[in-house]
Structures are given as C-alpha cells and as structure tokens.
Amino acid sequence: MERTTQIAQYLLSQPEPKRSEMETLHARILQLQPGCMLWFLDGLDPTGKIVSNPNIGYGLRTIHYANGKTKTFYQVGLSGNTTGISVYIMGIADKKYLSTTFGDSLGKASTSGYCIKFKTLQEINLNVLEAAIQMGFTNH
pTM higher than 0.85 for the full model? Predict the structure, then answer.
C-alpha cells in the first residue's frame, strides 16, 4: 500500500477530535517541510506483535551507532496515543533540551528527551510546538 494511503487511513482511524487535530498537525508539518520524505510505521514488529503506536514520520536522518552501523529514520514523528497526541523530535543529544527550551511556553504538555505529548491542540501553544518541530528539521 502506498505510504500516503497508509497515512490517510491511519488519520481516518483516529476518533474525533483527535483525528481533526492530527490532520491539522500533519498539514502544518508538511507546510514547514514541503516535499520531505514521508514514513509510516504501523507499530508492529516482523512477527506482527504490537511494539509501539503507529506513527507518521517526516524527513530523513541517519542514525550512527557505536558499532559503526547506520540506519535511516525520520526527523519528526506524529502519533496518536491513548490520552492524546505525541510529536517526536528525533536526534536530540541533550535529553533535557525540549523541556528547557520549549517546556514552559508549550502550555499543557509533557516533554521527554524526544517527545512532546499533549491531550488537545487547544491546551498548547501551537506556535511553540511548530518552533520545536522546525528545530527538529534543522538540528541535524
């Protein structure tokens, strides 16, 4: 199945209002990074076991492992979770960077080393979230 079709089906599978909010974020991420590579990860391992929430990825980065191997992956990710929406900013070396740089001005969101999680767009500052996403595209 084509990636854009998988993404559209994934977005349609989300309950409202999460669906509309994820569609809004998807469109805004594409405006921030037009023409970026799109990813869709269904959350299943090779045996079909659920190992994560499905997610949409944007952009392209190379992960360098200590053993010298490399892997391509996305720069920014978007996923629905049980309580709302997660935005992933990959490749940040400083695990406190998101919280110290964006945490206080994001609104009602929690941050981890690479994830910004919130219940609804109404509870966060969308301009600050977009700044964090843009940083995810330029910080590599």
Answer: yes
The whole-number mean pLDDT for each consecutive block of 10 residues of the chain, a chain of 140 residues, reads 92 96 97 96 91 94 92 96 95 92 94 95 96 88
Enter the tokens of residue 25: 């974020």
Torsion angles phi and psi, residue 48, rounded to 5: 90, 5
In angstroms, the Cα distances linking 85 to 11, 26, 60, 77, 95 are 12, 12, 22, 11, 20
